[in-house]
Amino acid sequence: MSNNETLQVRARPFASRKVRPFPKRKTGKKGGRLFFSMLIFFSGIVVVFLSVCTVYQKEVGIFLFKQMVIDRAFSPLLLENHSQKEREAIHLKLDDFYALAQAGGLEDKDLERVNTYFHKILLDQRIEKEEVQSLLALMKRITETEGSDKKDGEFL
User: Fold this and answer.
1) Which of 56, 55, 93 is nearest to 74 (CA)?
2) Is 138 domain-assigned?
3) Whole-number mean pLDDT of the chain?
């Protein structure tokens, strides 16, 4: 026997056997049902989320502003120049202001003015006492003008 004949003999049993590299695909009605139902489910979640964000836009904006800007950016910078009592008083005034805004006692433009002022304060990554005092004065002016516009006993 030559080398070619022995190679053919050894290769022969594998050549006669059918080998499928991938399993056979299922055919029938269930082919894309799971994919389609999962697609509908997740798109429904996105629609509900966007609807909630649209309906409660102001509340979500105030919540995120308080969490991200005030708690994570503004508060750590207050540690440098302010005592513990001053920081607590500032936080109470901020909480009162944003609670009033969330209750609907402030107009959107006034809330935007305060948020823009926060942005200006935080640009240089340090907070001076004068900046905080002017922010508190701005918030006080806004709440006083809103309170004077309301009728007696209606709000505030």
Assistant:
1) 93
2) yes
3) 79
pTM greater than 0.90 (yes/no): no
- The DSSP element (H or E) to which 75 belongs, if any, is helix 75-81
The amino acid at 155: F
Number of domains in the chain: 1
Instruction: Give the DSSP H/E element, type plus range, for residue 98.
Output: helix 84-102
Q: What is the pLDDT of residues 91-124, one digit of tens each?
A: 899 888 888 888 888 888 888 898 889 888 888 8
- Residue found by looking up tokens 């004949």 in the block: 5
Query: For residue 67, what are the domain limits?
Result: 57-148
First-to-final CA distance of the chain: 108
Residue 39 lies in a domain: no
Structure confidence by residue, pLDDT tens digits, 1-15: 555 555 555 555 555
